[in-house]
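thread from #wetlab-drylab

HS: before we spend reagent money on co-crystallization trials with 6-O-phosphono-alpha-D-fructofuranose, can we at least see a predicted complex? here's what I'd submit
DV: go for it
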Amino acid sequence: MLINRKIQTLDEFTIQQMRDFPNATGELSGLLRDIGLAAKRVHVEVNKAGLVDILGDAGTMNVQGEEVKKLDIYANNQFMGVLRHGVSCAGIGSEELDDIVVFDDEISNKSKYVCLFDPLDGSSNIDVNVSIGTIFSVFRRVSELGKPATKEDFLQQGIKQVAAGYVIYGSSTMLVYATRRGVNGFTLDQSVGEFTLSHPDIKCPDTGKIYSVNHGNFFQYNEKVQNYIHECQRKTKDNGGPYTQRYIGSMVADVHRNLIKGGIFMYPGTTDKPKGKLRLLYECNPFAFIVEIAGGKATNGKERILEVQPTEIHQRTPFFVGSKLMMEQYEQTQ
Ligand code: P6P
């Protein structure tokens, strides 16, 4: 009997990855499958958001001081729920939670990993049907197994991540995740309700023709950023151009496009917000890990994002990420 091995689901892929490492306990594979399950549940709600009264503001404010939409809370609860009831995660940090949530039960305290989430990034775009996403980061605990997870488990340098990924709820729903073995993308096949390997071994092109930045903040950027933006605009056929400006205002959509096509995404610091807007632990670290594994680079404008030592869960950072040669061109700009 012929077995079609071409179509590999997320579950089959993570189990295959585990089989390749005989000593693997299967916890990381299980954690990724749990995230896939929650992502499918969020996908269902995102895809009917316009049809039910789920768009209304929940009326509460999150730690960012932004109105929280019901879908943010729903997404946060889905990811927190599957991980709390799984056997692979000892606790989570989330944009929607003021502080970490330690699961502190006998099974969870023995789990090797903790996760950080932006459960629904770009949620201000929900009402206008623009692609949004979930971003996640996975660390091996540094605290003693068998005891509750501690804040130190979450405040590790990004270079210590064991996995990171995102879900993009767009024209199709995709889950992309990276380990040190590579970056792989899975598209949700709604006919069977499974994420299916569609983008094996993703590599970020060494260069590209897309630059992504919010031009509305131009006069608040420092001179180096302004000079680089002008360089992008001066590009001609002779000097490797022309570049095109693409900015959706939804980080997962913008960075995903540039990862696949090549390009640079920038959220620099401004005079009003020198640290920028994006969060280090659950927005920038995961994407920095993914893009570096795919061959690109990610900095805060001065140093490698993955080497920044975090001091608090919700800290912000300026963020520059993308194709290796475009990042080097930015770094050389005076
Ligand atoms: P601005 C969405 O609110 C978000 O956090 C990211 O998804 C996105 O890249 C950024 O903010 C957009 O911010 O200031 O350009 O609207």
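DV: DSSP finds nine helices and 15 strands in the chain.
HS: ok that's useful, forwarding to the group
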